[in-house]
Description:
By secondary structure, the chain is an alpha+beta fold. The protein has helices at about 5-20, 25-40, 50-60, 90-105, 125-130, 185-195, 215-220, 230-250, 280-295, 310-325, 330-345, and strands at about 5, 70-75, 80, 110-115, 135-140, 150, 155-160, 160-165, 175-180, 205, 210, 220-225, 265-275, 325.
Amino acid sequence: MGARYAAADLTDFASELFQRAGLPAERAAVMAEVFLEADLMGFSTHGMNRVPHNLQWLVDGDSRAAGEPEVLVDRGNLFNWDAAFLPGPWVVRQALDTAMARVPEHGVVMATIRRSQHIACLGAYLPRVVEAGYAVLMTCSTPSENTVSAHGGIDPIFSANPIAMAAPGEDYPLLFDISMSITAGGYVARAAREGKAMPEPCLKDARGEVTADPKALAEGGSIMPIGGAGHGYKGAALAILTEVLSMALGGYGRADAAAAGDGEANSVFLQVIDPAAFTSLENFKWQLGALQRLCEDSAVAKDAPGVRFPGHRAWLARDQQRRDGVELYPSIMGDLEPWGERLGVALPRAL
């Protein structure tokens, strides 16, 4: 892995870059916080790695630096926004903050967002919600993107859609962010850039042959859904679920001709749940703790690692990296350096 940097230095650096690219200081700070949060928990393809893309969209005018989302529907416990290409991390944070402000009254608040510029890592939004004592479920999709095939098919038709969830626990939260395809497009792009094969055969080439060659995706192939060649019908069904929640429920998606020109703009679904509306928060944590212990106490084969409950490693990494410095993937700072020079922002010093 790469060098370590103080978390505060990385946040200040990214925030200053976004301000120089045209964002107001408050919005730039939110962007920086969201991107860094991903790296703190180990989501290295969708954290600081995405900062150059977002800077380019701002400079080129593909992202709106100012303005508010249009409120299409608002019924108190649910709302639907059109972000019209506002920066994804900022607009999703606004939606989650709105939901969190309303959830003590309603118990459950849901929202959809259409035409949000790429929202990066879903997992990066979860700690803020779970630390407030709420559970959160999120998914997103990209109407103009086609990288994942249906089970048995060759044509790429879905985007590599993630589902993320967090819930407060006794010692640490339940927390996960997983794609409904075997791998996400960011990992395929990284492997292709570095000239490496994927860790397992997770793609189909243009002839329908299963392969681990990342170049297959750019040559007319596709990523297979979770379950792969044998059980991909499960992952394909989940991919459809994510697109129904984020696109169909929001009223904008693959049926819209305009979606073809949306670039990496995302459709988003989010749900914030107050466990105390159903039972006491203490009882909820106790029940979740029992699930955690059942997993962690499970017998494993000789010399095999113990069972990890989703979120444990990410939460430990988050605490450790905030304390000891953030270890960035080696290529990230190299991609940020030209932007620092272009916008006149000094690179942070490695620890």
